[in-house]
Design a protein that fits this description.
The chain has 9 helices and no strands. The chain has 162 residues and is mainly α. It is globular and about 50 Å long.
Length: 162
């Protein structure tokens, strides 16, 4: 699945959902219209975006926005970030402080989104989707940060969330 088609599906789910918590079901509805092969291709593109967002700067922003952020929390933060659509996602990759331009929200994560493609695929085929993506990177890209000073790296987010 090309990048444009992937983001069209994500954007349509976001548009169809009045709140972030309704996005997983909106994505489910969009994916149910696709063939099993297209669903698998969507999931591969999704995981590619999850991998691309595995950076220390984004983890620092997630830490500030959530008042702390474990590795699982960071996984679910990236799911939320993808659900925000291509413009927000790409801006955050370039500059995590761009997330301060969004309205303040609570619980900045969306774990359920990660499993929708697998569930829809299994519902259509009767068996689990076999992963075909590379192993997850061992360490986030970029420079790490210290919990005691991470707020100084993201002053706009710290002012908004702390």
């Amino acid at each position: 699945m090309d990048k444009a088609t992937f983001w069209e599906i994500v954007e349509s789910a976001k548009s169809a959902a009045p709140s972030k918590d309704e996005r997983p079901e909106a994505l489910r509805a969009a994916l149910e219209e696709l063939s099993p092969e297209a669903i698998k291709s969507f999931q591969e593109a999704y995981i590619g975006q999850v991998y691309s967002a595995f950076t220390w700067p984004l983890w620092g922003a997630a830490y500030v926005m959530n008042g702390g952020c474990s590795d699982d929390c960071f996984d679910y933060f990236r799911d939320w970030l993808i659900s925000e659509g291509q413009t927000v996602y790409e801006a955050a990759l370039k500059d995590p402080e761009s997330l301060a331009e969004l309205p303040r929200i609570e619980e900045i994560e969306l774990e359920e989104l990660r499993y929708i493609a697998d569930e829809v695929y299994e519902g259509k085929t009767g068996h689990a989707m076999e992963p075909t993506y590379p192993p997850f990177p061992g360490e986030p890209a970029g420079d790490s940060w210290d919990e005691d000073t991470v707020d100084k790296l993201f002053p706009k987010l710290a002012a908004m969330y702390w």
